[in-house]
Amino acid sequence: MQTRVLAGAISLTAMVGLTACGGDDSGGVGADGKIELTIGTFTEFGYEDLLKEYEQLNPDIRITHHKTGQGGPYHQQFFTKLAANSGLEDVVAIEEAHIPKVLDKPQLFHDLGEVGPSDVTPDRWLDWKIETATAKDGTWIGYGTDIGPLAMCYRKDLFEAAGLPSDPEAVKALFETWESYFAAGDQYVEATGKPWFDSASQVFNAMQNQLETGYFNEQDQLMMESNTAIRDNWKQVTAAVERGQSAKLVAFGPEWNSGFKQSAFATKTCPSWMLGIIEEQAGPEHAGHWAVTDAFPGGGGNWGGSFLAVPKQSQHPEEAAKLAAWLTAPEQQIKAFQHTGNFPSQVDALDSPELLGTTNEYFGGVNIGELYVAQANKVAEAQYKGPGDGEIQENATSPALQAVEQGKSPEEGWQQAVDTATRIAG
């Protein structure tokens, strides 16, 4: 699941040489003889009912769920506990932007190919999902939970008021390319005097995830300045900001949340997990106002998704791996999707008639299962993300784009982003 990422950089270099001993509070055996497992997640994974179901299916297991409201604080605590070699849960969720930092220290995690159920094999997942969670030494660190295939959400009623087409098929021409998207934004701003999108960083991050090479190459060299496509995306987004297209909201903050209810913007880059957020924040009064289309500038991409891993701190690694395997099985992935919008990453789930037939009444009865499966199939491979990728997004580009939204020039903002990214990359 995609969320706000790490708020403060936690160095993992101090972990080299740490022994893989169990943590004091990662679970044990209760007085009643039950094996006690803990699991740590952030935002909404849709696991509350599933964990109760697992306990019913496995009466010798008792599960404690530690859930953090946002991904930033969660990952900050996670890396602190990982560095201290103490305090982590038996099963930990790791968001895709932070998995590269974990892959750099495979000795601190169990290889799921060794401790996991023998019938749970990599071919259950999309190839690129498996590659994202496999360390360079071959250690399989994470079972894939969801993915974030990209579509575009928009307000039908606001489009109609601005004289723009509003039907999901008719709007596809507006969202064919980033050039056409920003051109439509100019039309909307001229007609209404109101913003077109929520946040420059939300648009930029979607564009960034479409690039063949991102912030790092596979040799973990920073590509911020040498990859001209990053700078080109920056120029497009900041130019749109200067033309009044951004609502200048900080994603996942209070004003951003209330912006959905207050009709503060007309379009939203929309990975599948965003649907639940929109419905929750916009509220019932906007049911049917929001729509989603499978058109996305540049053809689509993936933004978000997480993994479940078993740290060496766990006192019950095989039982923990069994729980993680069950939670990420096709049946449970579909249940989580129906509850939160987190889109499945297992091949059998993507082929399931139950998933393909899933509709969403809040978004006008659209078949979201079929729509997002089509978007997922457009992703050939995941972009390589080096250590520090998530920190650059959170601590370099997003603050710099916010600075541009508050009046700093695009050139000054770019230099701020480059300087911060360089410090993070070390």
UniProtKB/TrEMBL annotation:
Listed InterPro entries: Bact_solute-bd_prot1, SBP
Region of interest (Disordered), residue spans: 404-426
Gene3D superfamilies linked: Periplasmic binding protein-like II (3.40.190.10)
Name of the protein: Carbohydrate ABC transporter substrate-binding protein
